[in-house]
Amino acid sequence: MSTHASLDVVIVTYASRDLIRECLGSLFASPPRIPMNVVVVDNDSPDDTVEVVTSEFPSVNVVARPTNDGFAVANNVALRQSGAEYVLVLNPDTRIEPGTLDHLIGEMAADKTIGVLGCRLLTADGTLDHASKRSFPSPVTAAKYFLMKAAGRTGSDYVRPDIPDDGRADVDAVNGAFMLLRGDAMRGVGLLDEKYWMYGEDLDWCARFLAAGWRVVYDGRVVAHHLKGGSTSGRRPLKLNYHFHRSMLLFYRDHVSRGVVLVDVAVAAGVWARFGASALASAVQRLVRTSARPAT
Q1: Residues 230, 281 contacting (CB under 8 angstroms)
Q2: DSSP string covering 232-275, please?
Q3: What DSSP element (H or E) covers 142?
Q4: Would you state the torsion angle of the CA atoms of residues 93, 59, 7, 218, taken in this order, to the nearest 10 degrees?
């Protein structure tokens, strides 16, 4: 990969043929003014994701891994080789808008205190992806967020309702689906923590950037699109649901816990109870769908 005024884009794929085609198409249709290098790391996709990228986007560097060892491991394969001034970690279920990359790179170039920068991410229905601007979850804010979400409401401090969607402000974390990093800062802070198989690694990374003295900034003045769950087929399968809840506990242990045993036990019990409830709800939903199918 290149050094100095350039952008390295790292995208991890798994069974993402159609998504990565659209993602890369939008990326090359709206490239930044500085040189851009794109690396796609495929996590042993069962479809022809690798063949599609190789044949349709010959300038993209493709790393075809023989196993799926998780999101952090795959990203680190490419991030470890990056010497660029700027690095964009991007999900395959994203779409880039014209001008977004130049704006964000310009912001980071003008303010040397910014280590991580995110933009306003819009979901498929045009609403804000709540993870675009976040506070670190505490047991109280996490419980409030999930309870309000279950009731079809929003407003938890976790999703920073005090920041306008089109505003700009320092935050605790932005979304790992679109995360622009200062290359030198990343190399100083270190790569993604590979104990996070999937989910939570972006929160952990932002926490480590902040601890190292770098700012994490949300800039809602520019937009990208995030088809949430697009690369994981919508509702989380049981394995991903497990890792989602496991990552909650990893982050709590690493960055939130104050070592009070009773509190830690209560938090762990609450997280696993939520996992059990969501897994049961998914199983019931599948059963209902199966029962509703007409006989053939």
Answers
A1: no
A2: GTSSPPHHHHHHHHHHHHHHIIIII--S-HHHHHHHHHHHHHHH
A3: helix 139-150
A4: -10
- In angstroms, the CA 94 to CA 103 distance is 17
pLDDT score of 232: 43
Token pair 């014209």 is found at: 98
Is the full-model pTM beyond 0.70?
yes
Q: What is the mean pLDDT of the chain?
A: 87
Let me know: does 207 contact 199? Beta carbons within 8 Å. no
Q: Would you kindly state where each structural domain of the chain is located, as residue ranges? A: 3-232, 238-292
CATH of span 3-232:
3.90.550.10
Sign for the pseudo-dihedral over CA of 252, 186, 159, 73: negative
d(CA 280, CA 296): 28
**The token pair that represents 253 in the structure block:** 């242990």
